[in-house]
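Could you join me in thinking about how sequence relates to backbone shape in a protein? Label the sequence line and the structure token line clearly, so we can match residues to local backbone shapes. Once you have written the record down, we can walk along the chain together.
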Amino acid sequence: MNFSRAGWLGLAMATLALAGCATPQPPLRTVPRVDLQRYLGNWYVIANIPYFLEKGKVATYDTYAMRPDGRMDNVFTFRKGALDAPEKSWHGVAWVVNHESNAEWKVRFLWPFTATYLVLELDPDYQWAVVGTPGRDLLWVLARQRHLEATTYQDILKLVALQGYDTNRLALVPQP
């Protein structure tokens, strides 16, 4: 990811601003356990709460791969503005911070900035997942396929609402 000095400064300021936006709510509830080996692989972004780094990106997906040091490579792949645009990728790293559940991670795409990644909901067959951040300002609905059944998506929205998220903020991400 190539940023100018102004881009780096903007990212730092936005990160600090987001950190101050948390409202007092009960802590988010993560899933009891994530089997990391089953979680690895591609996760297509079905919907998210849009924010500046993902604005205008389509056909997005994350790929997780275990590294020898116990951390995970996290590659975010996207197309800018159109489904036929060239694919681009950002390379990050993720690591588990709650080893009891494996449902709380730190993710870093740009040193020294990290984000807390909470696995809030997870299909028993690992076909879809919901990931959020503690302040409820960011959320992603992920799936192993580029599309989810409408009834499954509606059920996920109900689960997300129970966690205190405003589901009206979610936007579907165009996928081919």
Remarks:
- Confidence is low (pLDDT under 50) at residues 3-20.
